[in-house]
Design the sequence.
């Protein structure tokens, strides 16, 4: 594999060049999103390949809101597990699952023994050297409908930005970058939806508490994959700079450039930048929108909005669309690695966890040998500190939690519901959970699907698995078969 195609990547285009070279991109000649063909195609691609294996879709020509956009819209940019390894500079193997695990391992090794992420401060470059400044639009030249922001679902309240990094800066609060649903309301107005208690919501309310009437803001689209993963995750704590963490993970400083209409600095290699202001004492309605759970999120009667004052972009900008609720939205290995380090520091029995975004609410956990009491203690802690973990299932470490076949097999064969389940009532939950009677609150279940749950009851060893016996008698058999029949396996 040529070195130039190995990450980390400094821009979306660098990343796309590598994806094209490794044939991870499927080009769609022509598609009509006014009839929601791209959305339907994405559903079918996930059904055929799975969320972790479906290719990136590049729409060579897409019709949206009666406008034709050429070579400027892509979907499922971060779905494939292979891409997690590529983004971190790992030469991918033939197994996408192993590639994902390699990515997690590399990031766990990157985080120091105190759980801190190494950081490199971003640098500022001249505007004339910044790709995102190749075109500058202000005043009457601003028209958000000139860019392929798609309406993914007919129930959405119009077109949405769902892969933007919303950047806020303040001399006392620092910099905050987060990804929130952003509704295109008209040619120069965007509704912004940071959920209550998300960092963006806290930042804007802290500014309001300081007496500020407006907040300067920028939205960066089409950044490099690691910068976007920091925006779309909870890796950075409130007050920490996502660009510093991204630079540390990439291994070099993120290049930034000052906005045209405010003092915010944005990633210089972005495809497109939207600059503007958020009024802090005025709200507008926003939504509904098809959310990550795969259900329509409600209209918000009062939400923040942004008045766009400038648009800067590369020549022929490429805009990713997430197809929220259908595809995996960002690189998830950084989130998983960060959580593994966190929970491992609390419990020596904890091995690792995985919460599949395509099955929101589930959290699969590997444990070493432990007691039933400790298993439930760990389960309670994870379930009450990780909002997405509504159904926390704890397994022995021999179960590959990234393999749904092994997960379901172990759950069905090692779990007895009455003795090995615990319900937590009125726990904090994600506000988008459509089953909650009260927003942000719901029940949780902890399931002990370890062998010990049975062994502790009958004082007998759990039955051996068939494959354990095979491996015991012929330790290298499966590896030999892999090599002998590699053309068909």
Sequence:
């Amino acid at each position: 594999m040529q070195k130039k195609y190995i990450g980390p990547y400094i821009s979306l285009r660098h990343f796309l060049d590598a994806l094209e070279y490794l044939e991870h991109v499927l080009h769609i000649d022509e598609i009509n999103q006014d009839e929601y063909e791209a959305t339907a195609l994405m559903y079918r691609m996930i059904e055929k390949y799975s969320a972790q294996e479906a290719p990136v879709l590049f729409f060579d020509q897409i019709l949206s809101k009666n406008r034709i956009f050429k070579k400027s819209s892509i979907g499922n940019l971060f779905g494939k597990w292979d891409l997690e390894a590529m983004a971190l500079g790992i030469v991918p193997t033939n197994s996408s699952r192993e590639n994902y695990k390699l990515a997690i391992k590399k990031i766990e090794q990157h985080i120091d023994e105190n759980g801190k992420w190494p950081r490199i401060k971003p640098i500022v470059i001249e505007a004339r050297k910044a790709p995102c400044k190749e075109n500058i639009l202000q005043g009457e030249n601003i028209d958000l409908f000139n860019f392929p922001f798609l309406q993914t679902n007919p129930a959405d309240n119009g077109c949405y930005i769902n892969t933007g990094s919303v950047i806020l800066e303040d001399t006392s609060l620092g910099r905050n970058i987060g990804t929130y649903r952003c509704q295109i309301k008209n040619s120069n107005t965007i509704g912004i939806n940071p959920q209550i208690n998300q960092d963006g919501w806290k930042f804007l309310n802290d500014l309001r508490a300081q007496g500020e009437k407006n907040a300067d803001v920028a939205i960066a689209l089409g950044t490099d994959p690691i910068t976007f993963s920091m925006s779309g995750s909870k890796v950075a704590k409130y007050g920490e700079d996502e660009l510093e963490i991204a630079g540390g993970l990439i291994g070099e400083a993120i290049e930034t450039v000052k906005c045209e209409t405010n003092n915010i600095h944005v990633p210089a290699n972005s495809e497109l930048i939207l600059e503007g202001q958020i009024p802090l004492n005025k709200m507008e309605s926003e939504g509904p929108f098809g959310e990550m759970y795969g259900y329509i999120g409600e209209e918000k009667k009062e939400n923040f909005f942004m008045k766009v004052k400038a648009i800067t972009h590369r020549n022929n900008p490429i805009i990713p669309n997430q197809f929220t609720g259908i595809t995996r939205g960002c690189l998830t290995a950084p989130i998983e690695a960060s959580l593994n380090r966190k929970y491992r520091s609390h419990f020596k029995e904890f091995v690792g966890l995985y919460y599949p975004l395509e099955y929101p609410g589930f959290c699969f956990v590997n444990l070493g040998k432990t007691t039933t009491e400790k298993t439930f203690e760990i389960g309670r802690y994870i379930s009450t500190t990780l909002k997405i973990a509504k159904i926390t299932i704890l397994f022995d470490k021999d179960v590959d939690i990234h393999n749904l076949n092994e997960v379901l097999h172990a759950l069905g064969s090692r779990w007895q519901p009455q003795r090995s389940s615990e319900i937590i009532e009125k726990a904090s939950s994600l506000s988008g959970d459509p089953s909650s009677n009260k927003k942000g609150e719901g029940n949780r279940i902890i399931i002990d699907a370890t062998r010990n749950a049975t062994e502790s009851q009958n004082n007998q060893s759990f039955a051996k698995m068939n494959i354990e016996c095979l491996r015991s008698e012929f330790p290298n058999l499966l590896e030999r078969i892999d090599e002998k029949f590699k053309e068909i396996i």
